[in-house]
Amino acid sequence: MKQAVIYPAIFKPVEKDIYFISFPDVPSAVTEGHGLKDSFEMASDALATMLYDEKKLPKVTNPKDIQTDGDSFVALVSADLSQAADNFA
User: Fold this and answer.
1) Which residue ranges form the domains of the chain, and what is each CATH number?
2) Exposed (0-12), middle (13-18) or buried (19+): which is 61, by Cβ within 10 Å?
3) Tell me: the pLDDT tens digits for 15-73?
4) I need a surface site. Which of 6, 24, 41, 59 has the fewest CB within 10 A?
5) Maximum alpha-carbon separation in the chain
6) What mean pLDDT do residues 7-13 have?
7) 81 with 3: CB under 8 angstroms?
């Protein structure tokens, strides 16, 4: 059975087309990506890796309540925890 989650992430541009991604609700889930497509894929992977074996998932913050600075922006990222669990089995 597929177990999917969705959490808000902060995408912070660090260089031309390179983003640092962090999750306010999952502080251990951090990554970076080159371009937005790669950044979203890396964010999804980081989120799944940190949460796939958690018995109790962190509460999800409303994206409107997340403060950003400069060129940073908030976007929702989904992750398939079942697939991550299979990858680590």
Assistant:
1) 4-84 (3.30.160.250)
2) middle
3) 999 999 999 999 999 999 999 999 999 999 999 999 988 889 999 999 999 999 989 99
4) 59
5) 40
6) 98
7) yes
